[in-house]
Write the structure tokens for this entry.
Amino acid sequence: MKAEKSLEEMRVVQRGQRLSIQPMEKRNFDKVCRMGRLKV
């Protein structure tokens, strides 16, 4: 996810943030699902 420029504003990919429950905008959620080839 860090390599994907369109997700760079997500907290989880920013330096110093821990991977746990993080808020996510719908457009970012949709992008991550497409990256994982998940159909929602």
User: Anything to note?
Assistant: The CA atoms of residues 11 and 17 lie 6 Å apart. The chain has a mean pLDDT of 82. The helical segments are 26-35.
